[in-house]
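agent: user wants the structure for Peptidase family M48 from Ornithinimicrobium cerasi. delegating to structure tool.
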Amino acid sequence: MTGALVTAALIVGALLLTLVAPHALARWERLRTVPAQGLFLWQSVSLAGVAFALFAAPVAAATLGTDYPRLLLVALILSGLMLARLLWSGHMVGTELRRMRAEHRALVDLVGERLPLAEDGGAPSPAPAARQDKVSVLPQADPTAYCLPGRRDRIVLSQAALQRLGDEELGAVLEHEHAHLRQRHDLVLELFQVLHEAVPEPVRAGSALEEVRLLGELLADRGAARRVGAATVGRALVALATPGSARQVRRRLAALAADPAPAWLRHGLPVLSSAVLALPVVLLAVALGGF
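agent: tool returned. relaying C-alpha cells verbatim.
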C-alpha cells in the first residue's frame, strides 16, 4: 500500500508542480520585491516537479509489481515522457543558444567599437578600465544594452544608448550587465528555458517564463543599485525605455521604488523552497524504506 500511495503522490506532485504551480507563481507579484528568493523558489518548484515525474516509474516498478497495473503504467508513461522531453529540450535549447551567441559574438567583434575612455577623448570612465575592455558599441539607432555570457563574455551597447545616457546612468547600465555576468543569470534562465520547452506546448505557461526573466532583471537591478543607487538605475531605465519595453520598465521601476519586503517573506521563502525541493526525495526514501 505504501508504494501505491507514494507513486500516486509522485504523479500528483509532478502534475501540480509542472502544470499548475507555474501559473500560480507567475501571478505572485510580491516575489518581485525579493528577486533572489523568488528565483530560488521558482528553481525549487521546477526541479521538484521534474524529480516527482522521474521518481514515479522507479518507485512504481520497485514497489507495485503487478498489484496496480494501471498506476504502474501511468507512472512509466509519466517518467518516460519527462525524461525524453528533458533530453530533447536540453539538447535543442543548449545547442541553439550557443550557436546564436557564437554568431552574435562574431558579429559584435566584426562591427563593434571599443567604449571610448577618457584617455581616448571620451567621457570619464563610469567603470574601471579593466572592465571596460569587454564593452562593445554597435552603430544601432535603437537604445539597447545587453551582455553576451560565455568564456569571452562582453557587454554590448548601441550608439543610441550612449547618446541617451549620462555618465552616471551609463555606469548604472554597466553595473547591471556586470551583475548578470557575475551571477551567471544566463545559466538560471537556460534551465528554465529547458524546463519550459520540456512541457508540451498546449499546457506551457508563457507568463511563467516571462516572470522568471523579469526576476533576473530585477536581481541585476538590485546589484547595480547597491553600487550606484536606485535613483541612478531608475534614470537609466527611463533613458533606455522604448514602446516595446515600457511594460517591463514600469515593473522594474515599481520594484526599485517598493518598500523593503517583510522579514517573513525574506526568510520564509528559502525555507519553503528547501521544503519543496526536499519533498520528492523524502517520498522516494519513504517508498524504498517501506519496500
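agent: one observation worth passing along. The chain has one domain: 2-290.
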